[in-house]
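HUMAN: Spend a minute on the protein record below and explain its fold to me.
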Amino acid sequence: MIHTLHFKTTRRDEMIEITRQIHDLLKQENIEEGIAVIYCPHTTAGITIQENADPDVKHDVLMRLDEVYPWEHPKYRHAEGNTASHLKAMTVGSSQTVLISGSRLLLGRWQGIYFCEFDGPRERTCLVRLLKSE
């Protein structure tokens, strides 16, 4: 079964932690061992695993992505004007795979799973497929 998570983002660039929602799906499906695939079906958003202990990390990541891919550049040609969001999404990537063991996501102590918005505010979705090991 593929689960769909829904988000309403509030800023052009933001990182929304979705670890808890994915953990809740594990409980719902009663999965003890397997893998979770988290996929973003948007070209201007992405999925990443990053530190979730210090909120300054999100700030720093978004700041550096903005410096590397400024919103405006004289050589951008994309008519919609959101080339930077496409570049950020390509850099972050569209999916993550996480191992499941003992009914838990095998994330490091300080890791969380994030939906990364780069062209908000928008209504977004994220797809999650939980695969149970036999």
In short: The CA atoms of residues 43 and 97 lie 19 Å apart. The beta strands are 2-8, 14-17, 34-39, 45-51, 95-101, 104-105, 111-117, 123-132. The chain has a mean pLDDT of 96. The helical segments are 19-29, 55-68, 83-92.
